[in-house]
Amino acid sequence: MPLINLVIALVVVGVILWAINSYIPMQANIQKILNMVVIIAVIIWLLNVFGVIGNISQIHIG
């Protein structure tokens, strides 16, 4: 994945998260959980893109 596509994807995710936090009224606890879930998902995606973790589709739970 080219670096410019990576940066564009991160900016798009950031803008979407900002818009959700700014324009959709929700409780502070739910907003914190949403932010944490998105941040964890982005970190896992970045680790997968850079090859730090293997292919996620090969990971089986249970």
What would you note in describing this structure?
By secondary structure, the protein is an all-alpha fold. 69% of the residues lie in helices and 0% in strands. The chain contains 2 helices and no strands. It has helices at 3-23, 28-49. The longest helix has 22 residues, at 28-49. The N and C termini lie far apart (31 Å). The mean pLDDT is 89.
Number of strands: 0
Distance between the termini: 31 Å
Poorly predicted regions: none
Estimate percent helicity: 55-70%
**Which value, in Å, is the CA radius of gyration?**
14 Å
Strand content: under 5%
Order of helices and strands: HH
Major beta sheet summary: none
Q: Give me the secondary-structure category.
A: mainly alpha
**Shape type:** flat
**Assembly type of the shown chains?**
single chain
How many helices? The count is 2
Mean pLDDT: 89
